[in-house]
Amino acid sequence: MAAEGDFLARYRAVSNKLKKRFLRKPNVAEASEQFGQLAKELKQQDCLQYAAFCNLAMARCEQTLFNAPGEALALTDAARLFLSSEKENRALQAPGFDEHLQAALNCYSFAVKVFIEMNQPVMAASLCLELGNALKEMNRPGEAVVHYQRAAELQTQTPIEALLSMGEIATCKILTRDYDGALSIFTETQLMCQERGLQLPGTSTPVGEACLKSSHMWIKILN
């Protein structure tokens, strides 16, 4: 409780610096730096959710300063901290309403949006994959599909990475026993490979042909 009280006092003290005062402009850059420092200290104390809130405040400051890279980084840090906090709660089997997971989802979503606005689809896709992997590890493959799909959509300029993302989609569909959906994804993968003429490294075997054969084999095994 003492740590919580100290956090709230320091958080409010920094927040008060952002209030507009007569003939005085708020020092947003200083506040952002202080929120960042407080986040680091809280993370070291294993107060992950509080550290995440500080990173969110830092992201708002960076947005005010029109510093998109700083905003994206702060949002990403907040997302990862909320996610780590959710994993800790699950490991302890603590009761909850997935509030930290929901906060993480929101932060990832905003970070992806900022990276897209910065014309950095590779970074945006990597965050989608990161979130998809986390959800799959948490036994939520159905929810992970959306994020793997988003990653594949953002990887149009990197077809091999897009294929890997589509493979993750198919895996999640198999885990949810959506075998028709998985086969549909494998078929889409094959068509994409044929259109681009992709081949397995060091061979003349088309990637699409290998993918389709593999997909049929797995579907037969699982059925």
UniProtKB/TrEMBL annotation:
One Gene Ontology cellular component annotation? Answer: early endosome
The protein in question is named Factor 8-associated a isoform 2
Superkingdom of origin: Eukaryota
Record InterPro entries: F8A, TPR-like_helical_dom_sf
Q: Which taxonomic lineage is given here?
A: Eukaryota, Metazoa, Chordata, Craniata, Vertebrata
One Pfam family from the UniProt entry? SNAP
> A GO BP term, please?
vesicle cytoskeletal trafficking
Q: Which organism is it from?
A: Scophthalmus maximus (Turbot)
